[in-house]
Structure formats: C-alpha cells, structure tokens
Amino acid sequence: MSHYQCTFSNARVGNKLPPRGAGFSLRDRVRSLVIWEALGVQWFRYLNAIHSFLLTRTYFISSNLHGHLIHHLSINGVFFLYSHLSAGAGGWSPLISDKYQWLEVDLGERTKITAVATQGRYGSSDWLTSYLLMFSDTGHNWKQYRQEDSIGSFPGNSNADNVVQYKLQQPAIARFLRLIPLDWNPSGRIGLRLETYGCPYTSDVVSLNGGSSSLVYRLSPGPWQTSKEVVSLKFKTLRNSGILLHAEGQQGVSLSLELERGKLQLLLRQGKTSPEPLHLTSLGSLLDDQHWHHVVLEQKSAHLNLTVDKNTERVQLPKIYNIFFIKPDASSKDLHGCIENLLYNGFNLIELAKNSDHQVTVRGNVTFSCAEPVSVALTFPGPQSFLQLPGTTASSPGGVSVGFQFRTWNKGGLLFTFSLPQQEGMVWLYLSDARLRLMIHKSGLSPAVFSGAALNDGQWHAVDFTARRGRLTISVDKGEGGIAHAAPSFPITAETQLFFGGKSEFSEECRNLFETFQGCMRLLTVENQRVDLIKVQQRLLGNYSQLQIDMCGIIDRCSPSRCEHGGRCSQSWTVFHCNCSDTGYSGATCHSSVYEQSCEAYKHNGNTSGHFYIDVDGSGPIKPQLVYCNMTGDTHRLTHAFTPLRPSPAVSQHSVHFDYSSQEEQLLAAISQSEHCEQELSYHCRKSQGSPFSWWLGGPGQGRVQTYWGGAHPGSQQCACGLQGDCVDLQHYCNCDADRLEWTEDSGLLTHKDTLPVRSLVLGDIQRPGSEAAYRVGPLRCHGDKNFWNAAFFDKETSYLHFPTFHGELSADISFLFKTTGSSGVFLENLGIKDFIRIELSSSTQVVFSFDVGNGPLEVRVESSVPLNDNRWHRVRAERNVKEASLRLDELAVATQEAPTDGHFHLQLNSQLFIGGTASRQKGFRGCIRSLQLNGVTLDLEERAKITPGVQPGCPGHCSSYGSLCQNHGRCVERASGFQCDCSLSAYAGVFCQTEVSASFKPGTSVSYTFKEPYELSRNSSALPSSIYSEMTLRAENISLSFRTNQSPALLLYVSSYYREYLAVLINKHDKLEVRYKLDSSRDAEVLRSSVRNVANGQLHTVTIKRLTDSVSVQVKTLHQEDFNLTSDGEFNAVKSLVLGRVHESDDLDPDLAKLASLGFTGCLSVVHFNTMSPLKAALLHSDTSPVIITGPLVQSNCGSAASTNPYAAENTHHLSGKKGGSGSAGSGQPLINAIRTDSALIGGTVFFFKHTSLYREPSSPCFAAFCC
C-alpha cells in the first residue's frame, strides 16, 4: 500500500465529474463493455483495459433506474463513479423521487474510502441537496457514516453543474457504499453523478468460532525488556460477551479484555486463587453490532492506555506481562467473531500463525477468513414508522405465534399489534416502564400481562408470543428475562395483518394510549417461519413506512458520557440526560460548579463566617473542598498545643510528615489563587540546637528542603530574631542555636507561598542528656482572592484586550462582572473560519450570548427590568455544551436554547480572543470588566491592561454595588481591591455589621460608659465651665437595644448628668416598659409607660426610643409606635455616663429608682446603641481603648439572637472583668503542652484554612502516632 496515496487532489479532470464525451476518453481506451440486466437491476463490468487503467469487477445496484447507465472506473487505486450517456441527460435518476431510493456501489473488495463528491444530473434540474452515506462489508448490516459522531447528513448540491466534495473525517473501510437521498431540488427530481476517492486496503483476518478457539503468542525465552508494549487489533461480533484478549504475567497475575453486555472491560486477576477480578475500566458500547471496532492496548511502565475506536482510558498496572493470546482456556465466554490485523509490538500475529511460526499456537476452530452471518435488522426511527406483515394463513393451526428481537433505550413503545377476527377486538404488546406488557381489548380491556424488566438497556432482547388452545404465553430472552401466562376466555388469532412498531392508521384513542416505539428489531418470525426482510424492502412482502431496513441505527449517547464531574448519564432514543445530584455541579452536562471559587466570593454574596465548599477552578477538574471561611477582619490569638520531644539516646532524629485534609491539586490551586498565605512554625528548645541539625520541607509535592524558620525569608538560614537583631545570643541568627539551658523559642509565620504548605519536619540534636524540644505547626491559612478583583477599565470603544484562542470545543462556560454607563458594547468575541462565540450588551437592558458551531447562528437573550448601565456591578454567566446554551444575568431566571439533537457540536475557533471589543474595532465596550473566567481559568486582565493603550488596570467604585451589604448603620469604605464595612458607628459587629453584640448579665454586673470628662473638654480652651457643660447637652436621643429577661422590676439602661438629671429605661413591676426622663433637677421625673405587656417573659424584645426636644416615641418589637410629650424644656444637660446593669453611684436617684438600680440586672442585653455610641460593643470588643469600666462578670453570648433557644448560653465565650481593658496574655518560658487544641482564624480579610494530620517517623521504625492539629 505504500505506493498508494489516499488524497487525490489531482484525481479529477477539470472541475466537474465527466459527462458523456468529456474527461477521460473511454471510447479510445475501453475495448468492450458488458452489461447484464436482471430483475430490473443493472450492473456492468469493463473488460480489457489498457494503459494506466486498472479496471476491476464492480457492481452497481439501485432502488430503480431512470433509463441510463452507471459506470465505474478505478485508476491507480482511485475510484471514480460517473455517468456515461447512452441517451438523454447523464447521471442516476430513479423512476420515483422519494426517500426510499438508494444507490449502491460494490467496490469488489474492502477499500479505504476517503472522500465522496456529488454533482447533479447533466443538463437537468435534478440534484440532491442532502444525503446519507451507508457502508457495509457484505451488502447487509449497513452502518451509517456520521460526522462528529452526531451529524448523519451530508450537504449536497445547489445546481446541476458544480461539484461538492466531502472528505471523510475518518476514512471508511468497506466493500459496499450506499447513498440515500434525503432532499433534492423541489423544481426537479433526484439526480446524481457520484465520485468516490480511496485506496486499496489489505488485512489479515482470523475467525474464532468458540469451542476454545484461540491464538496463543509466547515470547522468546530469556531476558527481555521493551520501553513500551502495544497490542492493536480490530474485531467484530454479533454476541455481546466473550474474552477478546488475555495476558499473563509472573506469579499468576493476569489481565483480560472481555466483552460484557457489548462493552469492553479491562480486568486484573491477582493470582489464580483470586476470588473476583479487579475491574480497572470499561470502554465502548454496542460493540456486538457486527461492525469492525478498533482496539489498542498500550503499556508503558505501570501505565496502560486502552483505546476503543476513538476513546481512550488510562489506568495503572502493578505488573509487566509477558504472554499475550486471544483466548485463554475453555470458558463459557468464548468469543464468536472475527479479528483483523492483530499486531503485537509491530509483529503481525495472524500472519505468523498462517506461516506456522513456533511462537504462535492455533487452538480450536480457527479459520483465516471472516465468515459473517447475515442478520437483517429494522430501525424504527420515529412516530410514523411501522411494518405490516400478513397474518396467519388458513393452513396454520388455530392461534398465533410471533417471535422477534428488539433493542431500545426508551422505557415505552408499541412493539406489535393485530386485530382479532371479525373486528371483535385488538391485541397490543408494548413496553411500559421498561417492562413488556400485553393488553387485549374485547368488550372491554382485559387485565394486563407483564413480563421482563429493565428492557430499555440497549441490549437485544428476544420476545416469543404464542397463543394456542386457550393458553397465551409471553417469553422474554428464552425465559431468562421472565415468562408470563394467561388464559383468555376467547380464542386469540390474527387472520388479517400484523403491525410491528406502530400502525398505518391509529385512532386518536390509540395514539394517546401508547408511546411510539423507537429502536431496532431483527429475527422476526410468524408461525415459526423467518420473515424475509429483504423482500419487504423490495415491496414484495407486506408494507412499511419510515423504516431503515438492513441496519440498526441505535446510538449510545452515553458512551462516551457527555456528563461531566461524575454526573450520571441516562438516555432515550433521541436525547441523553445528566443527573447532577450530589456532584456539586449543575447544568445540562454537570459542567458548572454550584460553589463559589473562594471565600471572597462568598463574602460578597452576603455570607458570614462558616464552613463552605469552594471550587477553586470552577468547572475545571479539581473537586470542591470544604474549608472554613473567616469573613471578618478581626485578629484572634488562640493558643495551640506544642508537641514535646524528650531525649532519646537511640534516636538521632525525629521526623514528622503532615497530611492535609485537601487533595494535593486542591491545596496548590488554593494557594496559587490566594493573595496571601501563612502557616505558623514554632520551635521551643532547651539545650537543643536548630541549625544545622533541623530543617523542614515545604512546597509542592513532597516539598523542598528549607533551612529558614518562621518570620524569616527563604534561603536566609535565619529565624525571625536574626532579621530583627534581637536573638538571645547575637552571635547566632536563631535563639535555639545558642544552646541555652533555659527554655527559648524561634517562632513566626511562614508567608512565602512557594514554600507552603509545610510537608514534613526533621528535628535533630535531641539525643543529648538534658535536651528537650517542642514544636508547633499551625494550620495553613490563606486569605483573599487575587482573581476576584482582577479588572480592567476600557475607556474607548476602539480599545480591547486580546488573549490566545479560547478552546471550548465541547463545553464552554464564561463568567464575569461588568459595570458601565454605556448602552451597548461587545464584552467578548472569538472567531473561527465559520464558527464564533460572542457576548455583548445589545441595549441598556439586554445581554446577548451568540455562537455558531456549524448549525447556523444561535442566540440566547436575557432582558432586565432595570437599566444595566447604572455604573453598578452586574454578573454574567454563559454556558454552551452539546445539549444546550444558557445565559444568566445577576439573579434573573436562566435563559436557555436547546442544541440540535443531531447537529454539529464542536466549537472550532482560531482567532485571538478579544475582550472589551472586536477585531473590527467596532461596537466596543466602555466600562469595567472584572473576574473574567473561561472554563474556570481567570484571565489576568490587569497585567494585559498595563501594556495596552486605551485600557487601564483595576476599576474603583465598588460601594455603589456592594454598599447595601453593610447593615445596621455600617459604612461602606472603598479599597483598591474591593471594599469593607466600617462598623464603628454601629452597635453590631461582623463583616457586614450584621452580628449582634450580646452579653449575659448577673446581678453584680455593671458596664459604665463615661462621656467626656469636663477637664478633657476644657484643655486648651478658655471657655467658662458653664459653656463646657453645654457641649454635652442633648436636645435629642436615638436609643435602641434588645433584651431578654424574667426579672421584674429591672433597670435596663441609665444615663446620668452632672446636673442631677437622668434618663432611665426599665421594666416596672407590672411587666411593662417604662421610660423616665428627669430633665429638670427641681421637678419630679416624667414617666412614659408603654402599653405593651409581659415584656419580662424570657423572650427577646427590641426597644427603640427617639426624642426630639419634648417629643418622645417608644416602639417595642415591631408593634405600633407610641408617642409622648414632655413638659420640661427638652434639654438633657451635661450628660455624664451611661450604665448597663447595676448602678453603683445612686445618690442622685429617686428612692424607688435607687432601690431598683441596686438590684442589678439578670438577663441578656444586646446591640445597645445610644446616638452614635455602642457602649456594650465597646465593653466586649474594645475595652482596652474605650472609656468603659466593667464590674462583675460579663459574658459575651449569642443570647441576643432571635434563634437562640437558651437565653443565657455562652458561645465563643470571652471573660473580661475586674478592671478597665481587662485582658491578659500567656507568660513566657516552658511551652504550654496542655493548651487548648484549636484552629484559629488569624489575619483579616476572608481567611480559609486547612487542617493537617501529623505522622511521626523514626529512621528505622514506622509511624506510630497521628493526631489532628
């Protein structure tokens, strides 16, 4: 074959297929032409060719002809089929133009066909606009050629003269070619001139017919080793099970490639005594279709690639094998079929077997040809498909007997039906919920008869229906799938017609009762006589409509599965469906992650601290991982346990390895994506030196050796004290290197991402007497998301950024945020020769996602009810896969467009990817684009913008979009990358000022918040004292607080003044809320009583009090506001302090109020706000910097939460008491061995951290301890 070429650009003469008298001068070169005619079919043969013509015996058959001949010519292995005019116009044209016509070419032998070309009938209006191609080795069991595994039709011609050539993406190897017209010129009829291109195909074939038939190949004795082992072959079979290939290695380990239910399974057996083989992988589907399938096994070291047709799976193997053969010992899984071109490392084993080579042994019934059984199948593709056969004859015994095999993916469908004699009823056999069901209608419906289960698995299932002598039997798979019996009270016979798959005329009632059968049938028998389906095709027997005869057109749309990320694929005859439950992904193909990519993204969705799944690469291959996200900017110092090491003379080193809860790829991706990562590393020592006896390993994989320690820089061989110059011995760069008898330490944070995380720790110098050491390795903490705020600003319509071509052939997801003041512009565009993908703002309220993969442009639109050019961030998420395209804008409903079931689905692009504009520099986008991700990969807009004119890196102004997340008087503050909520003027805390600040009070608890002292106001002032006091005079208050108590009466809040005036909020003895104002020291207090009852019931109550001069409003919970008027002048003079809980200075109080103040308060106070001050928050969170004095126990709690069921439960408790700024710190010296083991969220922003497990190892012993830090 080496001298043949399969691409023939010069194989045609001119630009047309040659009509009569044009192109090749056949009359000069062909001496004779012999034509046979029989049964209305014409074929011919050229004889005695001369010169360069290699004329072979070739036959042509068509459904019917229109008065002219078809000629075939083979030139140097290139095959031409064209028309030779004897009279009239040239080309093939059947007598009837309908979709049942076909043209068949017999090439005489199997040939490698690489291209076809069509042309209309010469000098006419007859041409095809689309057609199908079928191929076969035997003239039966046709297989439709499909492009991209989906497209079945080929484009035809638009006139009678131009040639349209199609190069097959994968060459077809076949002897027979059949062309089936689909559409033609509506002003003409079917007309065709055809040209095929190809080259000869040679092969060695062996047929295995069971009975221990096999070829055994044994390697030559002696040492051998190759870098790669490759076995390749082709096989075809009609049976769905059998052992195809078996390899044996040392110690009884074997590898088998077995066909099971039409799929190839790769099985590993660990010795002959192994009970069950290990299933390594499975590949392929419907491989029992009697068509050739290509298999390659390629082993390199411990890796093995299994390829079936065009799909490959990679697995790992524990052994190397040295025996390959086609069938092992006798087994019930004998392969019945043919094998072609069996090659092992380039050696043709079939050829060796033919030549009786000593390395190849032939066993059993093996022949060196492929004897193929003829099995004619029917395909029922749609609702109009049916087959009509004559019923029983008069000579048949009473009753009816029908048998057939079928395969389908559908759960329902009518299999066959017939009428009872004299129109007395009907019999239906159909699939319902993947079970076989029989229904008989005669004077009403008889009870249904069921048989079989899960019959929609795509496998062939045999059905036998017999009704004799009052007994009816339905058998599935010869009884293995079930047998059902019935005894109808009337005879079951079919004296008219039998209908399979449907019926020529259905009543509306029947159409609603049964689903259409879509699938294949074969081996039909009526009264135990095989039905000749070729006669049916020739219209010599029965009748049919919309059938594909002599082929089974079933397609496994789940092999390979288009469902990503572990989605489970199911299918019907026309479509597949992906079940994405429990995968963490969504969409038609489980492509898009349901989780955000970082804690930063969760934060800006309004989430607070907690555990979240993050998917660092979005739709990429890395699985989601569970992390803890700390959304606050607070710093907490919680103590971690140290692990002590005692001296051991027998051990020179201790080694510990750290395993993290996340997978390696998850960990590295999270580190790379984060703005900053850190991990604490501390070494406490006493008479135990660090360098050079100790080191650690960090970074990707197993890590690299690191000799610097926490707080220092990589490669410095120093500790933090060495950089700061404050080591205990200035001659050393680490404290522990001083070898002191007292305890000392080297600790700090590792912050260089390239050396994180800590993988293992090696500690030496612990074998000397008196040596002691302890270490602590904290969890890995990362914060920020450098991708989330990656943005660019496009200030001109002609400006754009360009990136390499986007590769999203089968699935593509694109997400980004934008903000603009413009009304239109292209966000993104990538072009191919014909294909393209584009997302644009088409108007101020509409975003459009458009693309073309070869089926014509498709658009998905989302309309917003509010303008999108409001200079606020809007999120766009677009996805395109083989099933559908979808577009989502902000939180609006997703818009979708289904893809054609049998259309093109590969997106083929070749230009640069343009962002913010187009290649034509028209319709550019003006505004900001942020966090642009394509298939989970973030494009670095900022780096590209730095070197691109007209585009600026970054984009400020985030509070316009995210400011509403700041609650409870929190103030949004702009940052270079993002924003933060300033809660200093709010009584709440947390990342969005949404966390209530609550505390549990005991009778002795007192919190006193002091307003400015007089001397503070008078410093550097010449004002008189009276004017100083006037600066603390209030004409209005805005007070809010929540409480929960069972105490009655009780004082909730008390505000005093230097002028013996006061304000008190209390619960009176009648369980009602009271507000007392004494704004004139010479008069009694004015009492304002709320009408709300029973506020001391242990439930949470929220109170809001507002005063403006003499007008006061009081509101409890969300009830109606109550208004009051004061009789005093409305000024609260010289405010001194605010007290929560017990009031110690009660000399200025009225007697009854003084008694109440001395009792203190028992219960919960939460989110106390007085004008711009939050005294309870200051006491709990900022006691060291606020003018607050705490007396007695004050316990921070979540008791102020409406969801709290335990009013006084202390959660995340911190204790502060005894003095202003009551806080303490751990002392120095010996490490705290028994400290609380906990993980802390340390440095602000959005923080997530990874726990690790420590495995200790000694040099000569296995790991013996494990715990979670």
From TrEMBL:
It is found in: Membrane. This is Contactin-associated protein-like 4. CDD domains: EGF_CA, FA58C, LamG. Residues 92-199 form the F5/8 type C domain. InterPro entries: ConA-like_dom_sf, EGF, FA58C, Fibrinogen-like_C, Fibrinogen_a/b/g_C_dom, Galactose-bd-like_sf, Laminin_G, Neurexin-related_CASP. PROSITE patterns: EGF_3 (PS50026), FA58C_1 (PS01285), FA58C_3 (PS50022), FIBRINOGEN_C_2 (PS51406), LAM_G_DOMAIN (PS50025). Keywords: Disulfide bond, EGF-like domain, Membrane, Repeat, Signal, Transmembrane, Transmembrane helix. GO terms for cellular component: membrane. Belongs to the neurexin family. Disulfide bonds join C928-C955. SUPFAM superfamilies: Concanavalin A-like lectins/glucanases, EGF/Laminin, Fibrinogen C-terminal domain-like, Galactose-binding domain-like. Residues 205-370, 376-552, 790-955, 1012-1199 form the Laminin G domain. It is a single-pass type I membrane protein. Its main location: membrane. Residues 590-635 form the Fibrinogen C-terminal domain. Residues 554-591, 956-994 form the EGF-like domain.
